[in-house]
Amino acid sequence: PHPIFLHDYQPPEFLIDRVDLAFELDPEQTMVTARLELRRNPAATRGDGTVCLHGEQLELEWIALDGHPLNPVDYRVERESLTVQRVPDRFVLETQVRIHPAHNTALEGLYQSGDMLCTQCEAEGFRRITYFLDRPDVMARYSATLIADKTRFPVLLSNGNRVASDDLDDGRHRVRWEDPFPKPSYLFALVAGDLRAVEDSFTTASGREVALQIFVEPHNLDKCDHAMRSLKKAMRWDEERFGREYDLDIFMIVAVSHFNMGAMENKGLNIFNDKFVLARPDTATDVDFDGIESVIAHEYFHNWTGNRITCRDWFQLSLKEGFTVYRDQEFTADVASRGVKRISDVRVLRSHQFTEDASPMAHPVRPDSYIEINNFYTATVYQKGAEVVRMQANLLGPEVFRRATDLYFARHDGQAVTTDDFVRCMEDASGRDLSQFRRWYEQAGTPELHIQTSYDEATRTCSLIVRQHTEPTPGQPVKAPFHLPLAIGLLGPDGRDLPLRLAGASSPDAPGTHVLELRQAVETFHFVDLPARPVPSLLRGFSAPVKLSFDCTDDDLLFLMAHDSDGFNRWDAAQTLMQRLLLNLVEDAEAGIPESFFDAFRRALRDEASDRALLAEVLTLPAESYLGEQMAVVDVDGIHRARTTLTRLIGERLRDDLLAVYRDNGESGPYAFTPEAVGRRALKNLALGYLMQAEDAEALARCQAQFAGAHNMTDVMAALRLLVDRGGLESRQALDEFYRRWSGESLVLDKWFSVQATSPREETLTQVIQLMRHPDFSLGHPNRVRSLVSAFCNLNQVRFHAADGAGYRFLADRVLELDPLNPLIASRLVKSLIRWRRFDPGRQALMRAEIARILEREDISKDVFEVASKALD
Ligand code: DPP
Ligand code: ZN
């Protein structure tokens, strides 16, 4: 396989203005007839008089040009293309192809999920449906006529508006859809099935009525309320915050069980992994409710950032994804808790994106080459892309940023554009020069900031020396400095923010946060008029996606934890402190934990006034994988031991306070998904976790009672996890009972698999291997694979990285089994192996051997090849 390069981009030689599709749908074989109106692109250089269309796994039945069937000498079919010779400047091309949805295990293109048929076309699935110029800069108006058996497939959906329907004589029916908005092929969708809809409506700001429909299988009708509420909230928010109104008369969501990704923003017809639609308090956890709200919003927001304005090419993926993630993050911050949202977003960024930056798959937010684009739906493109938008929003300030996004929507509506076009709108609306800022799109790697602070009593000056440095990444040995906002505050001895006055500035800023803009590798800042040595609070709100190190004592951290006016930095100080204690314990299992730590923890637990959700975040120990990232060589077993020890010590030392917190935050009344109730459950279950690690008898009794008596899945799962991690008879009984109760609910059963796969118990891998043979396990079901295999490989550091290499062997075997079925899912799994350089020589050798074994397989997919080969480069 060969890479594709951004610098080779050429505009398409032909454009397609209109597409009329007709489907005779049947799982075994579907006939697709396409009528394409093509014309030469005036903006492209003239080629050799042929047109070359993408197409994969299509059986061509017939082909005609301007109404005349073509002779075989006039066209050539190859494995991934159809070339037509000697075409005029403007013509109509008609084709009919045969495809086989029931045999499509890759779940790209048209495929079967349970009893329904559905599509997934992003990024390059449309070419498995018909021959086409399957690239996002070819935007066309579509119609789709769907014909299928009326009993099996009473519901037939596609993009846009339903314009006609009738019954045929043979038991089939026919529905025609038309989408008035030009779109790239990756946004095409169709669904056929025996589905029911939950319906509602939304009145837009300008007074238009939009019909809302969520389609599910009949037994799931009672799990759509939260998704519908979330959709309406998102529609209103986008009007208020970004001035974006919905543009069609109907908006549909379909929940599908077999889905490679989270969801897909097809125009007017979003198709979702059912995990991000279906929820009832007794089947879904707070995390699930939260995921549904933000994914529904995310896909809805794509209607403007992705669909109306799309990407010129796939290197620009972050144009739509980074911006849309930023928008969904802001939505959640507005409708739930801004502080908690920022913390959880930064957690994700640090644990997924920073690790990606430190891996052989490191790439810029705008990658410059790829072998398989499916490998680039990454934390870098999504989460770091969102941070890059966030920095621009913060540099511009809210009003100017809104003017800049208005300009972007006005200037580029209906176009396929680049990240550079986006930044130019930021510049044009603000008058700022963001040329250096553009490096965030071009350079991979996480910048490291080292900050030295000093205080001079004589001059009453606090000085900051700020150094930035970014490690080399594959293909980028040397990095230029970034332009980045560094938000800081200085705390006085009473814990309050001091007025900040830079040397030379005429008047001080008001007390609070000051944003420094960094542009050079080393910069020095002097703050004057400070009566005493302040404690600096740096990178407030995580103002830039960097790794920060600065010289501060444990006492400084305790002080920040207690007083910082910035909630994010209070949390971060606690995390840094816990990280220090834990890494000390890794080095020396006998190392003591200072009393001051337990005191601070106790004070926090007793603080009645504090926000429960934030408190739960502050009191959560850093994850094992995150701790590993902080070490030169990951000490898998040492980290697990240290974290278990500290958890137990907290449980023992703070027993009474933890029990009080547990009791005080119990459920009262029916389940509510409000920030307050979510926070209470989080704190209560965190407390229970500490107590359980301390082998507390009362805690065990409460845990079992919670498992048996809770009416919401959040509390049931929290208790089940603790029982499973503890092991023994109670664990077996709880698992069996859970299975009996929930084996008919696929999404709940996923939880049963993953709670076992993520247990740190020694027998976990053996258990996982047994579960692979469970009648409910299937490699053809991505959610199930993720719940068992990916959960074990990605969320269970101590067992996956067992020193004997059994975890690695298990993973490679699964990759080799999955690759012929579903390369996208297989390739995601390989990513768990590629960070081998972070481990000791023994583990390194074992991991490399497994990657090599994967690469030896003939006929490996491009997806897996790209990740595995880069891993060994
Ligand atoms: N475009 C989708 C999303 O991120 C991914 N398939 O919403
Ligand atoms: Zn997206």
Automatic annotation (TrEMBL):
A Pfam family of the record is: DUF3458_C
Q: Where is the Peptidase M1 alanyl aminopeptidase Ig-like fold domain?
A: 445-550
Q: Which GO terms describe its molecular function?
A: alanyl aminopeptidase activity; metallopeptidase activity; zinc ion binding
Keywords from the UniProt entry: Aminopeptidase, Hydrolase, Metal-binding, Metalloprotease, Protease, Zinc
What broad class of enzyme is this? hydrolase
What range(s) does the Peptidase M1 membrane alanine aminopeptidase domain occupy? 227-440
Q: Which GO terms describe its biological process?
A: proteolysis
Q: Which cofactor does it need?
A: Zn(2+)
The record's EC number reads 3.4.11.2
Domain (Peptidase M1 alanyl aminopeptidase C-terminal): residue spans on this chain:
554-872
The Aminopeptidase N-like N-terminal domain covers 47-187
- Catalysed conversion reaction: Release of an N-terminal amino acid, Xaa-|-Yaa- from a peptide, amide or arylamide. Xaa is preferably Ala, but may be most amino acids including Pro (slow action). When a terminal hydrophobic residue is followed by a prolyl residue, the two may be released as an intact Xaa-Pro dipeptide
Read off the PANTHER family from this record: PUROMYCIN-SENSITIVE AMINOPEPTIDASE
Its biological purpose:
Aminopeptidase N is involved in the degradation of intracellular peptides generated by protein breakdown during normal growth as well as in response to nutrient starvation.
> According to its UniProt record, which protein family does this protein belong to?
Belongs to the peptidase M1 family.
Protein name from the UniProt record: Aminopeptidase N
Q: Which organism is it from?
A: Thiobaca trueperi
